[in-house]
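Posting here for the record, re: iron/sulfur cluster.
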Amino acid sequence: MAARPKRLSKSRFTAGLQCPRQLWWKVHEPRAPELRPDAGLEAIFDMGNRVGERARQEFPNATLIDLDYRDLQAAVDATRNAIAEGAPGILEASFLEDRIFVAVDALSKEGDGWVVTEVKATTKVKPQHIPDAAVQAHVVERAGLPVSRVELMHLNRAHRHPDQGPLFIRADITEAVAELRAGIADEAHTQLRMLEGPLPDVAPGPHCTSPYDCPFLARCNAPLPEHPIEDLHRIGARQLGELHDEGIETVGQIPSDFPLNGIQTRHRAAVLRNEMVVEPGLHTALAAYRYPIAMLDFETIAPALPQWDGCSPFGKVPVQFSVHTLSEDGEISRRAYLADGEGDPRPGVAEALVAALDGAATVLAWNAPFEKECLGILAEASPEQAAALLDARGKVEDLLPVVRNYLYHPEFRGSFSIKNVVPALLPAMAYDDLEVSDGQVASSLLEKVLCRPEELPAEQRAGLRGQLAAYCQHDTAVMVELYRFLQEVSAGRA
Ligand code: SF4
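Prediction output follows.
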């Protein structure tokens, strides 16, 4: 039996714009392991679906084409019928023309023409949205419907829950789309012809990570050597180009007279000696902290659709913290909090945090701007606790720059993320044994547990809460050990 001719969709079309080779694999190997979404990507899809569903409420008179997504022809027929019956608007309006299928988020009648609205779970129009909308407008016109306007409907960062400002903004992108429209038919034809042939040759380049990371990076790129120059802290394109031109691939091969900044110089020295490099001054930097030292870590959620008073789309909401307090005699006490139940979590977090930080002379964090921001958010949302929270914010110190300025271990591999620093300096405290070991995953799980508990059976919810508590508490337990390790190093004992 002859193979069915390949088809394009808007996502296939935009993948083909990024790279024909990527599109070929996506179409010919749709079950490739690289295309299986991980937990992070699943969370992004879920969020997009929720925003899409909420956006439908902005089109109260529209007809929804809600059919089995595998039966494209049924969706196309239902759309045609809705138009024939005079529907003023259609949600998921489906068209198949010239072997390109599109389902338009919202198609609305306006005078003699139609408005194509594409909904995105973002807070602004991005360049990659334009071809996505352009291919839809092209197919709608090929189906015989004149398109008078193209809109990108995105979330409004200035909106404040519940009713301050509109939740969505409709940006008119007709002009930007028009510039691409003329080339859509040729591009689609080229892509469809390419798909009937063998895997195209495309050399890897900047297009592999722009506008999105290609899932097939590992197939096209040779593995990097141990300690590649790409790992050098804040390496610029010019520096990288100069080193590549000289045939230098690894940090250890960089000539001693090549201009490097302080951190890069330490990195090179650590790789060459294959040991940790420590600069003078570490002891003085640590001596600035006064006891008791409260090690603080927050976990936040950032729902696309805000739920509590004053929150904005994607606005951070601190919902969990852990504090390990270290006294001068070495005693450690521990406090932790994870919001529960319905309602605004911020007052509960704020109250528990003020109690947990009571008496602390120093509040120590890793990458402290985040903790300072969270303290500010809580202060704003909880006026009764504001004075104590702002006082705590004034005591926040950051351990990250201390490590960055005085220490380098070859296993940092170019990153001062706690997830790189801890396995290098405290291998016994690495995150490998935790069920939740990544901040992004923790955030999406927290959002699920707190904002959509009905989606989880009680037992699973309790299990997740336990994993999330362990993850957050591990972060501050790690800080205690890291602080002690640095003290030992500064005293010459490690
Ligand atoms: S890794 Fe680069 S060259 Fe390879 S398929 Fe992806 S985008 Fe194309």
